[in-house]
Amino acid sequence: MKKLLFSALLVSGGFFSVNAQLADGSIAPNFTVTAYQPGLANAGLNNNGTFTLYDYLDMGYTVIMDVSATWCGPCWSYHQGGALEDLYAAHGPAGHPGVSGSTTDDVMVIWVEGDASTADATMLDGAGSIGNWINPTGSYEIEFPMANPGSTVANQINNGYNIGFFPTIYKICPNRTISEVGQLSASALYGTVSSCPAPASAPNDGALLQYLGDNKACGAVDLVVRLQNNGTSPLTSCTITATEGATTVATYNWTGNLSTYGIADVTIGQFTPTNTNHNLNISITTADGNAANNAVATQVGLASTGTSNNVVVKVSLDRYGSETSWKIKRSNGTTAYSSPTYSDAAANGTYPQPDINTFLPDDCYSLEVLDSYGDGFDSGYGNGLVEVWVNGVKIAGVSDFPTGSEAGDAFLLDGVAGIEENLSNSLSVYPNPASEELNVSFEANGDYVIAILDLQGRMVATQTLTGLTGSQTVKFPVSDLAKGSYIVKISREGVSQTQNVVIR
Predict the structure, then answer these.
(1) Contact 271, 298 (CB under 8 A)
(2) Structural domain boundaries of the chain?
(3) ∠324-400-4 over CA atoms, to 5°?
(4) Predicted pLDDT of residue 316
(5) Which is it for the CA torsion 448, 451, 455, 459, positive or negative?
(6) pTM of the model
(7) Where is 12: in which H helix or E strand?
(8) Average per-residue pLDDT for the chain
(9) Quick one: fold of 419-503?
(10) CA atoms 85, 86, 87, 93: torsion sign
(11) Which residues, 6 or more positions from 420, have their beta carbon under 8 angstroms from its beta carbon?
């Protein structure tokens, strides 16, 4: 359903750019909106019908926010189903209009018109919209706040929350962290509330929200975590430690001044992986009021190495290929290669694309894959992948991307190492001993110098060859050489391989 809406949005709503949605675990920006419904004129916290996100979060409510458009068919269908009405009635703030007297009193619902061009006069009465949004079922007025914030605030919300499609439905926890929940039933929406951390209650409570550092690296990795103050008093210090099993790999004594729910991204040190998979646990090791939120786990590994500079990128797309793009970036952040523009297919399925062959110089590279819709490319519409191959071996890739907007990997290219390995494995000198002619055979890819040296290192014969590819056999006449022992040396880009030979 949302996929179809996304396409419609591009045609009907050119009022903001399409972005990947705000990543789960991000901090929700604050906003204030005014309810459109006259019946809620005195329902806001300020008794003027205005509703401020952080006010409700600070009171311990989880906020369900629906950003829609009055012309949007899927938005209207979801609205007519009454999920938000039922959620608000059973779990909304006690004493608010339309909320049951037996409410759990832990959820707030806010609907926001996301099209900044929508006029108040035509917003909810059916004129210029798909229907009467206040009274969609013909039975009673919607009593959770529905807001048409106007162009300035609407654009702030669209940009701050990376709204790329309608409807976008977010869950915002009291600690301000956000996740996209989608068009769920009332019971399913309420089921997501339990995953929110408890509101701040202890005076001293540092929390680690997520790991932000790289998971693959060619060398040292910066270990970065997001620290939040989940306590009622300012957080001014804590010790953060990273361990692998019983071994401490990094520790950092953080100091600062975070108010309640304030965040800081903290680099606690560097870790140099020695294999492809290190399981790290990063935790606050100083005592505080809630140990349950003190740790995050992550995997860090050494990037795979390709021993050739000839790279093959293999791509498969799901039905909505237009949402997928990728880049290969060098260690300095510049883009070495960008994906072409892909197209959508008519049905769900997996759609392999032509291989992309390119030459990349020696460097450490990052593979970055983006899904503009924010649901990955493995979410029920077919299986996608983006993989980097060298010498018939996959060295990096993204093939399990069911949710989120971005995924990635890293890889190292060391063509010099490949040259050495290739020469070592493929070089053959024959016959040995030789009397008339000497053959030097090898697998080539580039420019080479082949020389015959005596045991004192003096060159007695040489050939320079350029632009070679594939299997090669280079012939040297040796009948004029003095009998004895010699060295055959083949070189490319400063890398050489030798073999001893006898002339008789």
Answers:
(1) no
(2) 2-193, 206-302, 305-413, 419-503
(3) 45
(4) 96
(5) negative
(6) 0.70
(7) helix 2-12
(8) 87
(9) Immunoglobulin-like (2.60.40)
(10) positive
(11) 495, 497
At position 490, the amino acid (one-letter code) is: I
Structure tokens at 162: 């990376």
Chain-centre distance of CA 268, in angstroms?
Answer: 22
**Cα 382 to the center of its chain, rounded Å:** 19
- Cβ distance 22 to 169 under 8 Å? no
How far apart are alpha carbons 144 and 96 in whole angstroms?
Answer: 9
Binning the chain into helix, strand and coil, the percentages to the nearest 5 are 15, 40, 40
Q: Tell me the two tokens of residue 384.
A: 């996608």
Q: Where are the alpha helices (DSSP H) in 149-214?
A: 150-160, 186-193
Cβ–Cβ < 8 Å for 107, 190:
yes
Rounded average pLDDT over 304-328: 92
Alpha-carbon Rg for the chain in angstroms = 31
User: What is the C-alpha to C-alpha distance for residues 443 and 422, in angstroms, rounded to an integer?
Assistant: 7
Give the CATH H-level superfamily of domain 2-193.
Glutaredoxin (3.40.30.10)
pLDDT at 307: 82
Task: Give the containing element (helix H, strand E) for 270.
Answer: strand 263-271
Give the model's pLDDT for residue 402: 75
- How far apart, in Å, are the Cα atoms of 486 and each of 463, 479, 504? 16, 13, 11
Short-list 488, 489, 444, 451, CA closest to 467: 444
Residue where the block lists tokens 């061009």? 117
What's the rounded Cα separation, in Å, for the pair 329 and 145? 45
- The one-letter code for the residue type at 447 is D
Nearest to 398 by CA among 301, 315, 297, 302: 315
- Do 206-302 and 2-193 fall under one CATH topology? no
Phi first, then psi: what are they for 54, rounded to 5°?
Answer: -65, -25
Residue 455 CA to residue 212 CA, distance in Å, equals 58
What's the CATH number for 206-302? 2.60.40.10
Q: Among residues of the chain, what percentage have pLDDT more than 90?
A: 58
Beta bridge partners of 238: 254
| CATH topology for the 305-413 domain | Immunoglobulin-like (2.60.40)
Strands (E), 137-213: 146-147, 168-172, 178-180, 206-211
Q: How do 335-338 and 295-302 pair as beta strands?
A: unpaired
